[in-house]
Amino acid sequence: MLPTENRLRRRQDFTTAVKRGRRAGRPLLVVHLHREAAPDGGADRNSDFHPHVAEGLPSARAGFVVSKAVGPAVVRNAVKRRLRHLVRERLSRLPAGSLIVVRALPAAATAPYPDLEHDLDAALRRLLRSEPTGSAPTGTGR
Length: 142
Known about the structure:
Keywords: Endonuclease, Hydrolase, Nuclease, RNA-binding, tRNA processing. The chain has a single domain, classed as Ribosomal Protein S5, domain 2 (2-Layer Sandwich), CATH 3.30.230. Helix content is 37%, strand content 15%. It has helices spanning 11-20, 43-49, 73-90, 113-129; strands at 22-25, 29-34, 61-65, 99-104. Helix 3 (73-90) crosses helix 4 (113-129). It starts with 10 loop residues before the first helix and ends in a 13-residue tail after the last helix.
């Protein structure tokens, strides 16, 4: 289970990560990462937008999207639990204030745990090594 301060819950947070963040696709999942800007713009917005702000930027927060295309509820929940566990171990590597959304693809339902781990690590490596200015290639390099 993810700690409360590390969970994405609001639709607006998911939308921000997906629409404004960078994306890395893998065969089993798609990861969206949005790096939060410095807190100098609108202190009142930050306290409303991030209820768990202690000092400066809040900790990284993660959300998961597992649609019915992945399988029935039992399978979707199992995939979500596996992804939550994997992401929880990697939250410390993410920049403070970042939003991450992990979307499971249908193949994730039958994938072994090490394959999910490999795809998540590969997607995060790609997103973290590239700068958000768009200088990284966005082709199909997998």
